[in-house]
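Key result, reporting period 2: structure in, sequence out.
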């Protein structure tokens, strides 16, 4: 009997996890990626012999028994992944320029409560109540622990209609503490009174319990997933994007690649932005209200990234994520800047090249940037954007270094080279509308509007990726699991993954 076949559009994190799961479960998998390499947010590039991650700088849930450890063990790749846990006493440093205060976030719920209670002693009870409530939300999202459930992320978000801001405000009136409790906001591009609390809860717990780095870079995970797909007979094509989707009746007949060749399968999975997908097909075949609703969903903000290569032995390695911002209110307002006030804050890391680094080889600095800032060059292509764009990037690089110098006065003397990328880079390499860092924006006030179902109006087309359920290193694989569950059964997959739960 012939295998059932599936074509996956896009070789990012979601596409690779779907491909690895389905090929393991007996499907004939083909992945088409328009970029010259796989990985999406896992992708790395090299400058002067130094590798840089483009998106996945901090991970979580890779400790034994954790969700991603179990999924990757089921896929047969966990033992090949090199993980460096971030510092126990400080996985994240939250530094305010306005008062010079530094908040060190330690790992573990109890340690986290104790650290914040030492900073805000009169708020100890409120901090404790807040953390316990946060963890209860995560416990109720059964899939977060790979437990069987009748509900999806969407149904949970309906249950947790409270916004992050309202949730935090319900526990404390302390103005500074409210902003500190929202420390992980840049990891999901949150809006204080729009983002559903379940997103904040899941991401906060993920990093409080297990913030870590991928030693040697994130590309290793993409490569390992690709190896598994090929080992089970799957095919992966890079530099070969889908350029057309032919629809017959209520389903896809075939997809055509950039070389004009048609490809057919029983099922199709899109892991690209829905708006990018719609450009590939005759949208008149889709209900107008459906496509207009999806096209109208706002996207999260983007980012300007500065890549720094240090002189050998010149700058110390630190094993935590550093946030530096002008004032407490910037926690929610990084994207509300003027030309003169950008950047309002930095997030930077020194990625590990070995498990025992003493000096940093490199630094990656992210500064929130809206797509509107680079809109004058939106019709240009990579490498051909013109002199004004190059000058704009150089100006932004210097502003980033000026801000870094407030933290490290001598950092310029340690630097060998500087490179950078803008929201246009993310748009073009990730095929992500407006270079959105975390896909579409979830809004608890209009949750149905921002909900994109996995099943589409076409009978044999499914969705996956960060725009569908939840983004990030945990959210995208879990979304892939739900997508694959539509074909092979979610309970069946959970049983197989949990077979060796504590391996």
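The corresponding designed sequence is given below.
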């Amino acid at each position: 009997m012939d295998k059932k076949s599936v074509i996956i559009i896009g070789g990012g994190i979601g596409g690779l996890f779907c491909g690895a799961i389905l090929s393991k479960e007996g499907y004939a998998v083909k992945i088409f990626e328009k970029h010259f390499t796989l990985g999406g947010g896992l992708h790395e590039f090299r400058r002067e012999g130094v590798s840089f991650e483009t998106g996945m700088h901090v991970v979580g849930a890779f400790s034994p028994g954790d969700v991603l450890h179990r999924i990757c063990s089921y896929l047969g790749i966990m033992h090949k992944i090199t993980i460096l846990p971030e510092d126990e006493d400080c996985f994240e440093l939250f530094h305010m320029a306005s008062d010079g205060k530094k908040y060190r976030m330690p790992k573990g719920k109890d340690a986290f409560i104790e650290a914040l209670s030492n900073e805000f002693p009169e708020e100890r009870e409120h901090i404790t109540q807040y953390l316990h409530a946060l963890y209860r939300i995560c416990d109720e999202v059964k899939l977060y622990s790979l437990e069987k459930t009748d509900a999806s992320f969407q149904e949970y978000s309906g249950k947790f209609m409270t916004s992050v801001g309202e949730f935090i405000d319900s526990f404390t009136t302390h103005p500074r503490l409210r902003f500190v409790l929202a420390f992980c906001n840049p990891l999901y591009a949150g809006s204080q009174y729009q983002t559903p609390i379940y997103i904040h809860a899941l991401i906060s717990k993920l990093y409080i319990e297990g913030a870590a780095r991928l030693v040697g870079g994130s590309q290793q995970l993409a490569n390992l997933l690709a190896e598994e797909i090929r080992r089970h007979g799957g095919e992966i094509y890079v530099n070969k994007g889908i350029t057309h989707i032919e629809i017959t009746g209520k389903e896809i007949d075939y997809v055509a690649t950039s070389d004009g060749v048609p490809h057919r399968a029983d099922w199709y999975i899109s892991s690209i932005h829905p708006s990018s997908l719609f450009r590939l097909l005759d949208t008149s075949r889709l209900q107008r209200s459906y496509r207009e609703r999806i096209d109208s969903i706002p996207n999260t903000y983007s980012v300007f990234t500065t890549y720094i290569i240090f002189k050998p032995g010149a700058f110390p390695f630190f094993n935590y994520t550093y946030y530096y911002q002008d004032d407490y209110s910037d926690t929610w307002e990084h994207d509300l800047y003027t030309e003169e006030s950008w950047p309002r804050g930095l997030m930077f890391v020194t990625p590990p090249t070995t498990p025992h680094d003493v000096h940093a080889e490199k630094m990656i600095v992210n500064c929130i940037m809206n797509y509107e800032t680079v809109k004058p060059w939106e019709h240009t292509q990579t490498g051909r954007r013109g002199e004004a764009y190059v000058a704009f990037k150089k100006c932004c690089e210097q502003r980033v270094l000026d801000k870094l110098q407030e933290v490290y006065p001598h950092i310029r003397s340690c630097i060998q080279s500087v490179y950078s990328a803008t929201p246009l880079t993310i748009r073009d390499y990730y095929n992500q509308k407006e270079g959105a860092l975390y896909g579409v924006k979830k809004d608890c006030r209009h949750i149905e509007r921002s909900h994109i179902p996995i099943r589409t109006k076409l009978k044999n087309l499914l969705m996956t990726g960060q725009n569908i359920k939840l983004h990030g290193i945990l959210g995208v694989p879990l979304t892939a699991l739900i997508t694959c569950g539509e074909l092979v059964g979610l309970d069946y997959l959970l049983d197989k993954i949990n077979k060796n739960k504590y391996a």
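The chain has 16 helices and 19 strands. Residues 5-46+218-297+444-500 form a domain with the FAD/NAD(P)-binding domain fold (CATH 3.50.50.60). This case is discussed further under Risks and Mitigation.
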